[in-house]
Specification:
Layout (H helix, E strand, L loop, with lengths): L13 H16 L12 E6 L5 H12 L3 E5 L13 H11 L2 E6 L4 H6 L6 E6 L5 H15 L6 E5 L6 H10 L6 E5 L8 H10 L3 E4 L2 H4 L5 E4 L10 H7 L7 H4 L7 E3 L22 H19 L23 H4 L7 E5 L2 E4 L5 E3 L1
Parallel strand pairs: 1-2, 1-3, 3-4, 5-6, 5-8, 6-7, 8-9
Antiparallel strand pairs: 10-11, 11-12
This protein binds phosphoric acid mono(formamide)ester (CP).
Phosphoric acid mono(formamide)ester (CP) binds next to helix 2.
Length: about 350
C-alpha cells in the first residue's frame, strides 16, 4: 500500500482494494497460515465513541494475527478526561503502538490524528463523515455473497445524511463499473452534497425515492441503516424520523430471490426480527467478514509502514471550517487545511465540508 494512513477508502487504488479483499479471503480459508503474522506488533484502539463490532473486530483481528492490543474504549478513563488534546494523545500513543485505530464523534478526527502520529492511523469512524473499514467489511461480504462488485442496482435506505457507513460505501462502489444507486430516505435525511458530487463525477446514475416498497423489486442489494439518534439536535427531531422505513417479511416478498441485505449494525427497529431467518439476510455473517477484512488491512498497513512523524503542516487558507461538527472546532490548534474546488469554494480536508473563501 502506498499510503501510510487509512482515512478514507479513496486513499487506496482499486487494485490495492482488491488485494485486501483477496487477502481477507485467503485468511478466511487458511487462518492458521496467518496466526503469527503480527507477532510482536501492537495495535492501539482509541475509541472516543461507543462501539461493539469495530472495536472488538479490530482487537480480535490483531490477536488472531499473533499481535497485542492496548487502548481505551471510554475516554473518561484516560487523560482525555483531564483535558489532554488529540494531538498530545496521538503523539504519545504513536510512540507506544505500531498501528492505531481511532473512532471519534467529530468529523475529520482521523485525518487530524494522522498529522501527529508516527504510527499508521486507521479511521474507525469519524462522526457522521466516513467509516472506511465498515466499507471494507461490506465489499468483502458482497464479493463473497454476490461474486462481484460490478453492475448492481444498490439500494440504500434510512439515515443517508448522518450514516457514515453510507457515505464510505457509495464512494467506494461508485468506482466499480455499472453500479447505480437508489437512495431511499425522507427529504430530511438525504445524502450530503459531497456524496452526490462523487456519484456525478464517476458517472454513476442515482435516484432519490421515498418508498422502500416501491424501490425493493429492482434492487440487487439493499443496505439498510438505522436512524442515527446521536447525531440529532433534539430527541423530538429524531422521533419524527424513527420507524419511517422498516424492512419486514411483506416487503421481502417483493424483492428478487438473490437480493442481499446488508446492514452495518447496530439495528434498532428498521429490520423486523423475522427477516433474520431469510437466506438473503447477510448482516450477521457480514460482521465475521469484517474481522477478516481488518486482519488483511492490518497486515497490508504494517508491511511498508515507516515510523516517521508527518512533516508540520501550515494553514492553507485563513478561514475556519463552518461545519460545527468538524474537528477543527474543538481542536483549535489544528492547521486550517482546504482544497480549492474552483471559484470561491474550498473543501475542508478534515471533514469535506464546503466553505466559501
Ligand atoms: N458497524 C459499526 O460500526 O458497529 P459498531 O458501532 O458497533 O462498531
Amino acid at each position: 500500500m502506498k499510503v501510510k494512513h487509512l482515512i478514507d477508502l479513496e486513499d487506496l487504488t482499486t487494485p490495492e482494494l482488491m488485494e485486501i479483499i483477496e487477502l481477507a479471503n485467503a485468511i478466511k480459508d487458511n487462518p492458521a497460515d496467518y496466526a503469527e503474522r503480527c507477532r510482536g506488533k501492537i495495535l492501539a484502539t482509541l475509541f472516543y465513541e461507543p462501539s461493539t463490532r469495530t472495536q472488538m473486530s479490530f482487537k480480535t483481528a490483531m490477536l488472531r494475527l499473533g499481535g497485542s492490543v492496548i487502548g481505551f474504549d471510554n475516554p473518561q478513563n484516560s487523560s482525555v478526561s483531564k483535558g489532554e488534546s488529540l494531538k498530545d494523545t496521538i503523539t504519545v500513543v504513536g510512540g507506544y503502538a505500531d498501528i492505531i485505530a481511532i473512532r471519534h464523534s467529530m468529523e475529520g478526527t482521523a485525518k487530524a490524528a494522522s498529522l501527529y502520529s508516527a504510527a499508521p492511523v486507521i479511521n474507525a469512524g469519524d462522526g457522521g463523515h466516513l467509516h472506511p473499514t465498515q466499507t471494507l467489511t461490506d465489499v468483502v461480504t458482497l464479493y463473497n455473497e454476490k461474486g462481484s462488485l460490478d453492475n448492481m442496482c444498490i439500494g440504500l435506505c434510512g439515515d443517508l445524511k448522518n450514516g457514515r457507513t453510507v457515505h464510505s460505501f457509495i464512494k467506494t462502489m461508485s468506482h466499480f463499473k455499472g453500479n447505480r444507486f437508489v437512495l431511499i430516505s425522507t427529504p430530511e435525511l438525504t445524502v450530503p452534497q459531497y456524496i452526490k458530487d462523487v456519484m456525478n463525477a464517476s458517472g454513476c446514475r442515482y435516484t432519490e425515492v421515498r418508498s422502500l416498497a416501491e424501490a425493493i423489486p429492482m434492487l440487487d442489494m439493499l443496505y439498510m441503516t438505522r436512524i442515527q439518534r446521536e447525531r440529532f439536535k433534539s430527541y423530538d427531531e429524531y422521533e419524527k424520523q424513527k420507524g419511517v422505513f422498516v424492512l419486514d417479511r411483506e416487503k421481502m416478498m417483493l424483492a428478487k430471490a438473490d437480493m442481499k441485505i446488508l446492514h452495518p449494525l447496530p439495528r434498532v427497529d428498521e429490520i423486523a426480527e423475522d427477516v433474520d431467518y431469510d437466506s438473503r439476510a447477510k448482516y450477521f455473517i457480514q460482521t465475521v467478514y469484517g474481522m477478516y477484512a481488518r486482519m488483511a488491512l492490518i497486515i497490508k498497513m504494517l508491511e511498508n509502514a515507516d515510523r516517521k512523524p508527518m512533516a508540520r503542516r501550515f494553514d492553507t487558507h485563513h478561514i475556519r471550517c463552518t461545519n460545527p461538527n468538524c474537528i477543527t472546532y474543538t481542536e483549535e490548534y489544528l492547521p486550517k487545511l482546504f482544497r480549492p474546488l474552483g471559484g470561491d469554494m474550498v473543501l475542508c480536508r478534515y471533514c469535506e465540508g464546503r466553505n466559501l473563501i
